[in-house]
Amino acid sequence: MDYFNYKQGQLYAEDVSVKAIANTYGTPCYIYSRATLERHWHAFNDAFGDQDHLICYSVKACSNIAILNLFARLGSGFDIVSVGELERVLAAGGDPSKVVFSGVGKREDEMRRALEVGIRCFNIESEGELDRLNNVAREMGKAAAISIRVNPDVDAQTHPYISTGLKENKFGIDIDVVEDVYLRAEGMPNIKVDGIDCHIGSQLTEVAPFLDALDRVLDLADRLKEKGVEIHHLDLGGGLGVRYKDETPPLPAEYMQKMMENTRLKDYQVLIEPGRAIAANSAILVSRVEYLKPGEEKSFAIIDAAMNDLIRPSLYQAWQNIIPVVEVAEDAATSCYDVVGPICETGDFLGKDRDLSLKQGDLVAIRSSGAYGFTMASNYNTRPRACEVLVDGDQVHQIRRRETIEELFAGETLLP
Ligand code: LLP
């Protein structure tokens, strides 16, 4: 559920007209709803009941510091994958002792900064990384808390680009060989084994793969215990899907309920790293129709947003709803459009075969754009990145201004 609804024929973000925002801040423009973000965060947090837990919001989904700050105020933890994301969390007032650091390629300088500010845990993805972390921690006279990301070989049944828990994926360490790595880690003077980590993919719409992975992780924890390795927390990753079109993913409460039916979970603190399920439906991307281009084979609606603003349709053939900002009469004539951007690529589309009633200058909203929307935006075709606006009731806050063209080549220099 979100807070983007029509009122008297106009699309509203909470209590503010989307058209008014577009007129003030220009297009393309990301509009977030604070109530939606907070509602989704609480849905996860409440789902745990009295189970010891920590929500580590996955920063990569949507990383504007105003939004991270909202979660920090709720007491959230954060899942990061780079020192850049760490600095964002700190700038947003996030508590470093609630930060977990994921990712297969952590550099030494990133480890150093994370140890300096005292993050909660490194999610280790390879033996090489473990050795490097032990060395960096030794140089700093510290002990680094770790969990090892295991690859449970579970098929998440999602798009191949966002499936991560199969043996063929680059992530984690094979669950069948990870015990020896844990035993090695246990013997390292500057490493403190704390947990087991697992993330099998994104946009999962069934609980079954999560339950499979959980079973395997709990079995591993048991086996480790027998060998004298104490596990205190289980990090179950993110991955819960959302409805873009007609998907029926479980609600956070249903998902956690099913997971907690496994009573072995009680022995551990549970961390989760949701990104999409919190952020996706918290934002729309608003864009204006530049041209309508009717054709024999295809008709195109050319809008001022493009794949550089929102790459999900181009990259994953993702379907996101495109709706008019000013509601049209139910019996209004429609045409079937490919909704495309101005970028010089055939793959530059936001939606294909959409029945819409449009005219030049109209505003459209691309729904469910809050996760992996702005964070995946680029400057391709030297296009400044869009502005981001957050609505809170009847208040509008610009949380990131539109980039200027000068900024785009400010770091470039001519040869002498
Ligand atoms: N934890 C780890 C270790 C991850 O790799 C990810 C996402 C998450 C948590 C958060 O997963 P979520 O709850 O958002 O599913 N750009 C793609 C999605 C890539 C997901 C990458 N990892 C998309 O737009 O669909």
UniProtKB/TrEMBL annotation:
Binding-site list for pyridoxal 5'-phosphate: G239, E273, P274, G275, R276, Y372
Coiled coil region boundaries: none
Cofactor: pyridoxal 5'-phosphate
Superkingdom of origin organism: Bacteria
The protein's enzyme class: lyase
Active site, UniProt feature: C344 (proton donor)
Entry keywords, A to Z: Amino-acid biosynthesis, Decarboxylase, Lyase, Lysine biosynthesis, Pyridoxal phosphate
GO biological process: lysine biosynthetic process via diaminopimelate
Domain Orn/DAP/Arg decarboxylase 2 C-terminal, chain residue ranges per copy: 30-370
Alphabetized GO MF terms: diaminopimelate decarboxylase activity; pyridoxal phosphate binding
Substrates-to-products reaction catalysed: meso-2,6-diaminopimelate + H(+) = L-lysine + CO2
N6-(pyridoxal phosphate)lysine PTM sites in chain numbering: K60
Biochemical pathway: Amino-acid biosynthesis; L-lysine biosynthesis via DAP pathway; L-lysine from DL-2,6-diaminopimelate: step 1/1
Subunit structure of this chain's protein: Homodimer.
Function of the protein: Specifically catalyzes the decarboxylation of meso-diaminopimelate (meso-DAP) to L-lysine.
PANTHER family per UniProt: DIAMINOPIMELATE DECARBOXYLASE (PTHR43727), GROUP IV DECARBOXYLASE (PTHR43727:SF2)
Protein's UniProt name: Diaminopimelate decarboxylase
Gene (UniProt): lysA
